[in-house]
Amino acid sequence: MTLSPDETLIFTLWGIAINATIFYTWVVMALLVVVSMLITRNLRPDVPPNRWRITLEVIVQGIQGQIAEVAPGPSRYLLYYAGTLFLFVAVSNLLLVVPGFEPPTASLSTTTALALSVLIAVPLFGITSRGLGGYLKTYVEPSFIMLPFNIISEFSRGISLAIRLYGNIMSGAVIAAILLGVAPFFFPVVMDVLGLLTGMIQAYIFAILATVYIASATAPSPSQPQKELP
């Protein structure tokens, strides 16, 4: 039993070891791109929507509704960013039921990369909304004494995002392996159902926390006018 997909070597490409984390990340990305292209290839008003297009529209509208509750106001790029995070983490976790698939979200390197993207996205959205001076001013609010604490808080958010997602997915896989060894004829179905439920919850938590962090960086300040996000 391996604790991380990083330990599983799939193949070697030009002398570079491709482990399960990298390989299955490519699989998830390719799956999302291909499915999205197939569903939206006839996206025209005169073409009646099929059930797959309706399903995709329900998912997008659901993500848009959750973002609107946390970050009011139009924000097309926030929908793109948070929606992509949610779909990638959700599909990675849902494919856990496929025999042989190792979710890349069970690797600390994947969750750290996702958390780093949030750390980069927060100041980008903040600067777009408030301007560079207005965003940097948030680090000295309510007083200059809070500067080191606000910086530490910013980095602790990224660390908590990475550890939370990695810990939940990795521990779930370990517990499933232990239970399958104890009762292999009973626990597979139960663990599959729990894995699907836990995977969706973790994807929702990760995406909604990223949205909350971005919303806090773009929230209007009494002394600083806010620009609407595109």
What would your notes on this structure say?
- The chain is mostly helical and 230 residues long.
- The protein has helices at residues 20-40, 51-70, 76-94, 108-137, 147-182, 187-218, and strands at residues 9-13, 16-19.
- Helix 2 crosses helix 3 (76-94), helix 3 (76-94) runs antiparallel to helix 6 (187-218) and helix 5 (147-182) runs antiparallel to helix 6 (187-218).
- The mean pLDDT is 80.
- This is ATP synthase subunit a.
- It is a multi-pass membrane protein.
- One of its GO terms (cellular component) is proton-transporting ATP synthase complex.
- Pfam families: ATP-synt_A (PF00119).
Describe the structure using short key phrases.
6 helices; ATP synthase subunit a; 230 residues; mainly alpha; 2 strands; two-stranded antiparallel sheet; 4% strand
Outline:
The protein has helices at 20-40, 51-70, 76-94, 108-137, 147-182, 187-218, and strands spanning 9-13, 16-19.
Main-sheet strand order equals: 1-2
Compute the number of strand runs: 2
Low-confidence stretches: none
Task: Report the radius of gyration as a whole number of Å.
Answer: 20 Å
Task: Quote the beta fraction.
Answer: under 5%
End-to-end separation in angstroms reads 47 Å
**Topology as a string of helices (H) and strands (E):** EEHHHHHH
Query: How would you characterize the largest beta sheet?
Result: 2 strands, antiparallel
Percent of residues in helical segments?
Answer: 55-70%
| Molecular shape | globular
| Tally of alpha and pi helices | 6
Mean pLDDT: 80
Structural class: mainly alpha
Pfam family, one: ATP-synt_A
Membrane topology: Multi-pass membrane protein
Keywords: ATP synthesis, Cell membrane, CF(0), Hydrogen ion transport, Ion transport, Membrane, Transmembrane, Transmembrane helix, Transport
Function: Key component of the proton channel; it plays a direct role in the translocation of protons across the membrane.
